[in-house]
Amino acid sequence: LGVVVGLPSKSPNAIMEALPGRTWYGMAKGLADQARRHTPESVARALDLLAEADVMLKSTSHGEEFVLHRHLLEILENAA
Fold first, then answer.
1. How many CA atoms lie within 13 A of 60 on its CB side?
2. What would the DSSP string read from start to end of 7-67?
3. In the predicted model, is pLDDT for residue 80 greater than 60?
4. How far apart are CA 49 and CA 46, in angstroms?
5. Of 5, 40, 33, nearest to 19 (Cα)?
6. Distance from C-alpha of 57 to C-alpha of 2, rounded to nearest angstrom
7. Taking the alpha carbons of 26, 3, 71, 59 in that order, is the dihedral positive or negative?
8. What pTM did the predictor assign?
9. Other C-beta atoms within 10 Å of 14: how many?
């Protein structure tokens, strides 16, 4: 998604060209839909939040559901 958000064209064909050997048309179409809701900044923030969630899961007694809801809601809210 991070690569796709930065592409000038979000067409499935452009995505498949940017990710050679890693994607197929249906997957590229889904990535295109997701990329329209994000900016490079929101993707970077999402990755930061996922890293925080990983640390929290490994270092606290909070359950998985709490950690994922806390971070996932912010990731969704930050989508453009």
1. 12
2. -S---HHHHHHHSTTT--HHHHHHHHHHHTT--HHHHHHHHHHHHHHHHHHHHSS--HHHH
3. no
4. 5
5. 5
6. 24
7. positive
8. 0.67
9. 15
